[in-house]
Amino acid sequence: MKFFEYEAKQLFREAGIATAVGSEVIHYPEEIAFLKLKYPVVLKTQVLTGGRGKAGGIKFAENTSEAIEVAKYLFDLPIKGEKPQCLLIDPKAPIKKEFYLAITLDREQKCPILIGSSEGGIEIESSGSAKIVPVKGAVYSSHYGRRLAYEMGTSGKDFQVISSIVDKLYSLYEKYDLDLAEINPLAQLEDGSFIALDGKITINDDAIDRQPRFKGQLIHHLNDVSEREKRATVSGLNLVELGEGNIGILCNGAGLTMATMDLVQFKGGKPANFLDVGGGANSNKVNAALSLVATNPQVKVIFINILGGITACDQVALPLIDFKKKFPELKLVVRLLGNNQDKARELLNGTGIEFIDDLDKAVETAVSVTG
Amino acid sequence: MSVLLNKDSKIIVQGATGGMGSTHTQLMLNYGTKVVAGVTPGKGGAEVHGVPVYNTVVEAIDKTGADVSVLFVPPLLCKDAALEAICSGGIRLLIIITEGIPPLDEVKIQEAAKQAGVLVVGPNCPGVITPGECLVGIHPGSVYKPGRIGMVSRSGTLTYEVALSLTNADLGQSTCVGIGGDPVPGLGFVETLKLFENDPETDLICLMGEIGGTAEESAAELIESGEITKPVIAYIAGRTAPEGKRMGHAGAIISGDKGTVESKEKAFTKAGVKVAKLPSEMVELVKQELSKVAA
Predict the structure, then answer these.
(1) Which of A48, A108, A140, A256 to mutate to test the interface with B (most CBs of B within 10 A)?
(2) Average of per-residue pLDDT values in chain B
(3) For labelling, which of A28, A217, B231, B262 has a CA lying 20 to 30 Å from the CA of B284?
(4) Which among B279, B271, B178 has a CA at the least distance from the CA of B236?
(5) Which SS3 state, helix, strand or coil, does residue B128 take?
(6) Can you give the pLDDT at residue B292?
(7) What does the pLDDT read at residue A350?
């Protein structure tokens, strides 16, 4: 789950990392008239989508009336389709220098890494100038923070302050099971002090259940996905929509689902989505999955590919029959192999649902429907 | 000798009294696996499908002599259960089936296992099967048959898919290892390839990868170095996956230009590995390679 910038900054402050003094969060432009802001200010749209600055989501204002105009503009400006629910207003800070700090998991080294740079505003994936310090076995100690501050080329008081910010950032990273804790940029002001000018925090979705503070908040942090993807998340399903396709896919297991999408494309079709119903799918889950795929108006045919290990095929067949009655115009191509497959076949007999064992042939049939 | 397991391997099921644990204890027993003990703290003295349940892993080892443990434990309890097995002193191989373990827990599990010299397979994997001898995990035994092809994969159902095609073509398997779909796996492609290279019962290796990370690129490097002399056939899933989206598995995500199918296929092709464009093509490539070996 990604946090909005204003929430990330709240967490920074709680950990003892300074942010701009005199910030406000507004939900309506008119609120600005009642705030005591120190102008000039910067208004920042609060969205989860990346690339906000480039898309025009950050604007300056010199006085109240200008700020209200800018706020109206920003509230109406979608960033890659995502509209903000609130704006963050910060006093414009006199910046001397920008730094970059982040903590994330490194898959190759199999441990968290500290990333630092004495250049702010870089992208985490393409950070040539960044220094990296692995935290072996995820057992942190302050010497890792000092090592990073040293590698970043800092000395004197800056060295002390940056080491201690890394400590605080790591405490957040560990305490809240974060996937990413990033301060970008960490700004040094003209008076030499440091503030987190912008930041990203992502909490690991699998760990939310042991974070009582954030439990139940995921649904309010899905603004950057489609309505159907949101519904899938609350149904415990994994749906990723592809935008253009017209062949809906419902499958079990991540690898087989991806392979099925690839195969549809290989055979000349356009996959509409990735939808993994998971192992041991029961009829409720299959029902929910079918209606998600079917409510995508572009979908002309649904291809169901279930290779049962744990999944009982008859549990999948029953909701298919109900679905066919409800949506007779939607073509279903079904491949169901594994536990109780003969029972499933009997159930589907005479329902007009195509039942094909061979994967390549099944995909070809689905593709041929869309022409 | 096959890889990792054989018909004499004695298995402990941690979490045997839970729904998944109990179901798969039955299926493993049906397959002929020697499941000798279950472990659920507080349920010591119970039985699951005739298998005695103990409170601790240490007691289960003391009473049965088992040296392999498989975890069917809820994700947030897995770190403790895994560390219990690792610290018991008697477990050589730990197989973690559970999906959804927080990555920082995984880091701590893998680090402890490394220190203790315990092999970990998973998490978020279907386990290991040596067809005809031993099944530890959730593989559907019916799609496999004994033979001389080694399989290693990041995905469960994709492995079943390919295994089914191989079996239908009368090409049996020596061992199938599901290394799992998480970002911090124990045994990786590299380690598993080395096991197969040294296994006299494996002639050829099928590797099924997917987007995300660089495990496939590392495998390709190992093969290119000449350390793997047996033929390898690869397939990579996720060509149609969009950048930045997690595709089911926690580890299946393209970040920027890293972790793409193109990068992985390129690495394999450079290493002389035959890459199948479709899962069904793997069978054809296997047949071609085997005919070369025979000739």
Answers:
(1) A256
(2) 95
(3) B262
(4) B279
(5) strand
(6) 86
(7) 84
Rounded CA-CA distance B278/B269 in Å is 15
Sorted by sequence, the CB contacts under 8 Å of residue B176 that are 6+ apart come out as B128, B129, B131, B139, B144, B150, B151, B152, B153, B159, B163
Residues of A in contact with B245 (CB under 8 A): 240
Q: What is the rounded CA–CA span in Å between residue A100 and residue A117?
A: 5
> For position B2, what pLDDT does the model report?
67
**B140-294 CATH fold:** Rossmann fold (3.40.50)
Fold of A227-370: Rossmann fold (3.40.50)
Same fold for the pair B10-121 and B140-294 = yes
C-alpha to C-alpha distance for B175 and B9, rounded to whole angstroms: 14
Q: CATH 3.30.1490.20 spans which residues of chain A?
A: 22-91
Place of tokens 């990203």: A200
CA dihedral sign of residues B13, B18, B20, B23: positive
Nearest to A368 by CA among A260, A218, A268: A268
Q: pLDDT at residue B258 above 70?
A: yes
Strands, E, within B166-220: which ranges?
173-178, 204-210
Separation in Å, CA of B30 to nearest CA in chain A: 14
Q: Residue ranges of the domains in chain B? A: 10-121, 140-294
Domain A22-91 annotated CATH 3.30.1490.20? yes
In chain A, which residues have their Cβ closer than 8 Å to the Cβ of B120? none
Helices A254-266, B156-168: axis angle to 10 degrees equals: 60
Task: Supply the CATH classification number for the domain A95-210.
Answer: 3.30.470.20
What is the mean pLDDT of the segment spanning B238-244?
93
Q: Which residues pair with residue B53 across a beta bridge? A: B38
CA dihedral A160, A165, A167, A168 (to 10 degrees): 140
Q: Give the Cα separation of A111 and B104 in Å (integer).
A: 8
B194: left (phi over 0), alpha (psi -120 to 50) or beta: alpha
Chain mean pLDDT for chain A:
92
Question: Could you give the count of Cα atoms lying within 13 Å of B199 in the half-sphere of its Cβ?
Answer: 27
Domain B10-121, CATH homologous superfamily name and number = NAD(P)-binding Rossmann-like Domain (3.40.50.720)
Q: Mutation test of the interface with chain A: which of B104, B157, B211, B284, choosing the one with the most A Cβ atoms within 10 A?
A: B157
| Structure confidence by residue, pLDDT tens digits, B156-211 | 999 999 999 999 999 999 999 999 999 999 999 999 999 999 999 999 999 999 99
Residues of B in contact with A261 (CB under 8 A): 240-241
Q: Is A203 left (phi over 0), alpha (psi -120 to 50) or beta?
A: beta
